[in-house]
Automatic annotation (TrEMBL):
It comes from Bradyrhizobium betae. It comes from the Bacteria. InterPro entries: Flavin_Rdtase-like_dom, NADH-dep_flavin_reductase, Split_barrel_FMN-bd. Keywords: Monooxygenase, Oxidoreductase. The keyword Oxidoreductase applies. This is Nitrilotriacetate monooxygenase.
Length: 187
């Protein structure tokens, strides 16, 4: 009798990450991942020609407090990938509940996502968008390739935050955090 868990055969490393050789259905896997609620961020950087770029992202996470490090990821087929790969700095903006339209704006392709957006240049000229719940101005430290995404690691060089309520995302929908004391006040 053997109590050890059964393990599948070790996959061939050359084919392990190939999508056509995975037994997992990508759409269903995405649905499963969608059950994990995340914050909503906009990541910004400036291209070599000075043009600001930004994307909506929910793959943001803290990595380390000392030194202060964060990460986020971007699909390898993103039209702005080269900008972020070449930028010395990027800024992560945690969006508030009132910024759902802004999240939608930066989630879509557009020639000028910054039209009508209140922002100032931050470290490395990466745009800092006004009124976000928090922002983290980061120096690009490294990037790693993981399947169909590039993972960006940033050293936080400046940050700011306020008491605004963060915008959340789960199961393809926006929402907000409802604290226990707020639930007790609701009818």
């Amino acid at each position: 009798m053997n109590d050890l868990p059964k393990q599948p055969a070790v996959p061939d490393p050359a084919n392990e990450l190939a999508s056509d050789s995975s037994p997992i259905d990508p759409r269903d896997f995405r649905n499963a991942l969608g059950t994990y609620g995340t914050g909503v961020t906009i990541i910004t950087a400036t291209a070599a020609d000075g043009k600001p770029y930004g994307i909506t992202c929910n793959s943001f996470a803290s990595v380390s407090l000392n030194p202060p490090l964060v990460l986020w990821s971007l699909g390898v087929y993103s039209s702005s990938l080269t900008v972020f790969q070449n930028a010395s700095h990027f800024t992560v903006h945690v969006l508030g509940t009132s910024q759902q339209a802004l999240a939608n704006k930066f989630a879509k392709s557009s020639d000028d996502k910054f039209a009508g957006v209140d922002w100032t240049p931050g470290l490395g000229n990466a745009p800092v968008i006004a009124e976000s719940v928090a922002n983290f101005q980061c120096r690009s430290v490294n990037r790693y390739y993981g399947g169909d995404h590039v993972i960006f690691l940033g050293a936080v060089e400046a940050y700011a935050y306020n008491t605004g309520k963060p915008l959340l995302f789960a199961r393809g929908m926006y929402g907000r955090f409802l604290a226990d004391d707020e639930r007790k006040k609701s009818p």
